[in-house]
Design a protein that fits this description.
With 138 residues, the chain is mostly beta strands. 6% of the residues lie in helices and 38% in strands. A five-stranded antiparallel sheet has the order 6-5-4-7-8.
Amino acid sequence: MTTIAQDRELHPPAITPETQPFFDATARGALMLKFCDACQRFHHYPRALCPHCFSERTRWVETKGTGSIYTFSVLRAGTPTPFALAYVQLDEGPRMMTNLVDCDLDALDIGQPVRVVFKPATNGAMIPMFTPTQGKAP
């Protein structure tokens, strides 16, 4: 069976002062994460305090935009078009909830390498999503 992911209407994200730099970066085609200078760890979602050590010494760092599928589910019922909801393990460490796009939804696999792509929401904000870079994981 083959189910090719199709573009679908994306609702605008809730942009706050904490997430504004994240969405400014996605508009430029870059994926940014917060990095804590105190404990030397990345985290996602964006927040003022590091969730690992509660330090305020965090800053934005551009990522490679690559990772692998940690887990996923293909939703087929109750939606106009099937889509894949997933957690992607970024190469920098954090896991990001996202959609898997521009692929055959029936060929997805845990551990499969992915790279970031950006899809526009209805208000023009760019939403980071991921697409496989090769076939199923070895």
